Amino acid sequence: MSEAKIRLSDVMSRLVVEHSDDIISIRDADGRIRYTSPSFHRVMGYAPEEMIGETGFDLLHPEDRSTVEDAMAEFWKTPGARDSIQYRARHANGSWVSIEVVAYNLLDHPVIQGVLISGRDISNRKRDEAVKDQLIWELQQALTGVNALTGVLPICASCKKIQNEEGNWQQIEMYLRERAPVEFSHGMCPECTRLWFPEQGKK
Question: Any alpha helices (H) in 29-122, and if so which ranges?
Fold first, then answer.
């Protein structure tokens, strides 16, 4: 490959890294950040130079920190390995950002001699998943209420009261209202109207 093509390739690679929304970082054998791309500022609000020489552990959510530290300690032991993990990190404005990272252990690479990490903000995806989980939970709760009405219901052939689990007889409206999110609007069907009000039924 000619020297001009090599320079062009290097320039293109640098432009991709500098303008990508993903955070590209290289960590040394001790876990400290040697390099991080400009996107670190766009995603997390910190200048890249602030992070050089730091581990970034202080930015991790307290509930995620031990998991990330343990995963890193094991991952650093296996040159050539590839793995991914998700965690929350504190933005410069104090909010929490959900991050998904893919790491490549290149400690034995003759040039890089570090761990290459690509991180992505997945906060919107996490929020969408939370909304979906809430909807599923609400649907399950609704189905639970419906399922409570399945089976054989003892009902009086005369007054139409239903016998509940304790053996007591309840009006059907009260029985259903206690077991399902329903309300009743009373009216009268045509057959009953003719039975109880024959004069009106003749009109």
Answer: 39-44, 48-51, 62-75
